[in-house]
Design goal:
The protein has about 140 residues and is mainly α.
């Protein structure tokens, strides 16, 4: 089972998606911790989540750890699963209300990064970490 989680191709196709996904999630996780009034607990409270302080910190740590794992190409297929859950939750809780309350175009504008991250994460789930990843190194040894 572990071999299937780390299996990847000996090519560079996943490098740029890994860098994008890893840096965005790493950055967002850090911002949730250092700017709780903007992207952290206050935002989670505004959305309506119970216990927003805990949940924002929990999500932030997941984003940071998963971001680092994706950047290094470590168990990429497993790592993107929580990121997919985070992105789907973000779309459902913050973008669908924009669609229902405002318009499709306002939602499309607000969700552009969410959809890009969602699709890039699906890409990494399918293709894995690629040639320049810890997964590839482990697969060879």
């Amino acid at each position: 089972m572990f071999r299937s989680l780390i299996s990847t191709k000996e090519d560079n196709r996943s490098l740029i998606p890994r860098i994008i996904v890893g840096l965005v999630f790493l950055s967002e996780g850090i911002q949730k911790l250092i700017f709780p009034e903007i992207t952290g607990a206050a935002r989670f409270d505004k959305i309506g989540f119970e216990n927003p302080e805990f949940l924002a910190s929990f999500v932030a740590v997941f984003e940071i750890v998963c971001g680092v794992f994706v950047l290094t190409g470590t168990i990429v297929r497993l790592t993107v699963i929580p990121l997919l859950i985070i992105m789907i939750t973000a779309i459902v809780t913050t973008k669908i209300p924009i669609l229902t309350e405002e318009s499709f175009w306002r939602m499309a504008h607000a969700a552009r990064t969410d959809f890009a991250m969602l699709l890039l994460s699906v890409y990494l789930l399918i293709y894995g970490g690629g040639k320049w990843s810890v997964d590839r190194f482990l697969q060879r040894h």
